[in-house]
């Protein structure tokens, strides 16, 4: 993140949790904005945000926050975006850009757009970066470095406003890509939403086993299960809203997943080692391809505290059959 000329004068942040708090820290560290005004619903959170000092000003209401702001970012659970847009709509400054960070894009577009006046630019966004932690203390400035931020502007969006928001996210360290909201929701259903659903399921299943005790599950957790427990510790409100608002795409991907799971189940039942081996060989190649992309675009290390960016060298192809 290099210090640069401000892209916006006044950033208003509605919601100051992991993502809002990280945006504030990164925007300040990069110099992407001149000043930051933040708000949160509860007095306790506002007090904490003031203590943490990542905003220049902490105000009590959403309306006070957006006054005079040329960039407004709504960083709250996706199900709450519509009512917030209705609340702030009449108070937005001429020419302001309004954006969000929601993990689902079509519902946010449908819920927010009708409440926004014609004199503002609405450019929804999704930084594809996060952790299982929530709240203002969880944020950190490097969260977006070398991660994707997907913009899903409506068809008639002002190209200059889209470019300006892309510049903002680039200043925060992200790589920016643009696509339609519906396509975004399909892609994220398989790459993010379904994996979270599987994690929530498997951790619940392990907890309900009769013959294996909870303490045995914890004691003998191998790497895979531990990773699932991290993901299954993610915020319940946020993920409830994601599954409610991306229902169709998630159900479509879940259908595909269940078919593939049935095939593997059959292979295990029949003792079909060849089918299992072929499947695992294909998935290993996919993982190696992801690692290769990660290494090709690896950014300098900014002291990232979280995030599974691959840094280990990719091992040479290996098959235990060759031993
Ligand atoms: N957590 C993650 O890893 C990622 C989350 N996102 C998206 O970012 C958004 C925010 O998530 P986080 O920052 O992780 O959550 P968080 O729980 O850390 O923060 C959410 C903030 O929204 C506020 N809030 C909740 N309901 C509200 C309402 N009805 N009206 C006004 N404010 C309300 C909370 O008080 C809190 O300040 C969500 O839409 C999520 O889908 C996007 C990328 C990654
Ligand atoms: O913590 C993890 O592994 C995540 O996957 C974080 C995350 C959660 C939601 C998003 O929309 C994007 C990233």
From TrEMBL:
GO biological process per UniProt: tyrosine biosynthetic process
UniProt enzyme class: oxidoreductase
UniProt catalytic activity: prephenate + NAD(+) = 3-(4-hydroxyphenyl)pyruvate + CO2 + NADH
The protein's Enzyme Commission number: 1.3.1.12
Region ranges (Disordered): 301-323
Amino-acid biosynthesis keyword on record: yes
Chain ranges of the Prephenate/arogenate dehydrogenase domain: 9-298
Keyword tags: Amino-acid biosynthesis, Aromatic amino acid biosynthesis, NAD, Oxidoreductase, Tyrosine biosynthesis
Pathway: Amino-acid biosynthesis; L-tyrosine biosynthesis; (4-hydroxyphenyl)pyruvate from prephenate (NAD(+) route): step 1/1
NCBIfam families for the chain: PRK07502.1
Family: Belongs to the prephenate/arogenate dehydrogenase family.
The protein's name: prephenate dehydrogenase
């Amino acid at each position: 993140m290099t210090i640069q000329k401000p892209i916006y004068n006044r950033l208003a942040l509605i919601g100051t949790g992991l993502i809002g708090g990280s945006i504030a820290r990164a925007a300040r560290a990069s110099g992407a904005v001149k000043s930051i005004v933040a708000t949160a619903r509860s007095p306790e959170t506002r007090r904490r945000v003031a203590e943490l000092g990542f905003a220049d000003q902490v105000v009590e209401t959403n309306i006070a926050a957006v006054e005079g702001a040329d960039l407004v970012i709504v960083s709250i659970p996706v199900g709450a975006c519509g009512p917030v847009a209705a609340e702030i709509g009449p108070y937005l400054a001429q020419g302001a850009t309004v954006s969000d960070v929601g993990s689902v894009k079509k519902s946010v577009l449908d819920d927010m757009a009708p409440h926004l006046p014609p004199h503002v630019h609405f450019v929804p966004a999704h930084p594809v970066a996060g952790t299982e932690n929530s709240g203002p203390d969880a944020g950190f400035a490097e969260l977006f470095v070398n991660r994707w931020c997907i913009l899903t502007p409506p068809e008639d969006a002002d190209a200059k406003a889209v470019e300006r928001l892309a510049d903002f996210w680039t200043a925060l360290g992200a790589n920016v890509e643009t696509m339609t909201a519906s396509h975004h929701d399909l892609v994220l259903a398989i790459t993010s939403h379904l994996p979270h659903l599987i994690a929530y399921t498997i951790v619940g299943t392990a907890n309900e086993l009769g013959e294996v005790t909870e303490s045995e599950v914890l004691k003998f957790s191998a790497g895979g299960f531990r990773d699932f427990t991290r993901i299954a510790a993610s915020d319940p409100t946020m993920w409830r809203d994601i599954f409610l608002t991306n229902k169709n795409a998630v159900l479509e991907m879940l259908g595909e997943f269940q078919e593939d799971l049935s095939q593997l189940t059959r292979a295990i039942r029949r003792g079909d080692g060849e089918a299992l081996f072929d499947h695992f060989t294909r998935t290993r190649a996919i993982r190696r391809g992801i690692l290769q992309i990660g290494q090709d675009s690896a950014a300098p290390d900014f002291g990232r505290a979280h995030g599974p960016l691959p840094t280990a060298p990719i091992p040479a192809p290996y098959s235990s059959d060759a031993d």
